[in-house]
Amino acid sequence: LNRRLAEFGTTIFAEMSALALSTGSINLGQGFPDTDGPEEIREAAVRALRDGRGNQYPPGPGVPELRTAIAAHQKQRYELAYDPDREVLVTAGATEAIAASLLALVEPGDEVVALEPYYDSYAASIAMAGGTRIPVTLRPHEEIREGVTHRRFRLDLDELRDAVTDNTRLLLVNTPHNPTGTVLTREELGEIAKLAVERDLLVITDEVYEHLVFDEAEHLPLASFPGMRERTVTIGSAGKTFSFTGWKVGWVTGTPDLVAAVRSAKQFLTYVASGPFQYAVAEALALPDTYFAAFRADMRAKRDVLAAGLTEAGFKVFQPAGTYFITTDIRPLGESDGFAFCRALPERAGVVAIPNAVFYDHREAGAPFVRFAFCKRTEVLEEAAKRLKAAW
Ligand code: PMP
Ligand code: GLN
């Protein structure tokens, strides 16, 4: 294994899902739903397969029906107009979109500023591109409003500014944010945008959880801020929005130059993927608002079940404004090392979770935090909560 990849080992998701299987534990580690997406969309995939649509190599940029649907989605939801032929690219999940964007846009030695903790493929993809990652740590913050404690991980804008140097090529942003559940606010995004314009940086923004925002939180695409459309590569995925993580259909939107650059890398990674599923996702993106609202309400209810269970079990809970993850602080349980905690958890409680430290370069900053996924059936969440309560 070459030096660029040697430090990464096996992805934590594979390790933890294997542990869940071998110990018969409830898997709240890897983020995938235990209920598949809409029946009518599964039927659309079957129809495509049966009718011979997508069984052979689809067009390199993605099938026209899907590119059109992605452009319509960005326009309808965010007033962002993209030309389906030149400004949209279909990828093998968001994972390929991230890798191809970094491989296309980063020169060896360029610095890439990313919000820490970060989704694990970011570090590996930056390394494969020969870039240097510069983490900016999201800091836990607690405030009491009207007698209620609100906790979130927030961006320190001074730290972000200080991280940018003359060698910085791009900012890699993720909102709603995995694993903290933070949804960046209008103010935070506005400051990121200002900085990007001021320092003439490119931005890759991973918005795969765009439809998973709760309560008062609102997802604002970074590309919609002044001066950003021309410098931003936006990434989305059907895996999260429609609960089909196995289909691996993702996409990129951006200017013709940026999308052409990403396509240059993408064509030599997979060339194309997911033929029949692309047609089905085109139909999914055109589902009525009621689908998106019901999906959000369902996930919000699941969040509340797990958050209540974790709180009762003694964890300090960071109530997520978005995504399907809850980050907890394990120190109230008398624990401080998330790695040791997660390795012992299957034996102790029959539950699998992810130590947030794997998403940090500053491991010590992530040590006491542990992530639980709540994209599971309610009875599964309730059983997990019961087991955790019994274990402490
Ligand atoms: N980005 C983030 C923030 C994610 O959490 C995930 C997967 N959970 C991905 C990208 C990858 O998405 P996909 O499965 O579409 O490759
Ligand atoms: N993105 C999902 C998570 O954060 C898992 C993706 C994967 O297994 N690579 O849990």
TrEMBL record:
Residues 26-388 form the Aminotransferase class I/classII large domain. It comes from Streptomyces mirabilis. It comes from the Bacteria. Its EC number is 2.6.1.-. Its cofactor is pyridoxal 5'-phosphate. GO terms for molecular function: transaminase activity. The keyword Transferase applies. SUPFAM superfamilies: PLP-dependent transferases. This is Pyridoxal phosphate-dependent aminotransferase. Keywords: Aminotransferase, Pyridoxal phosphate, Transferase.
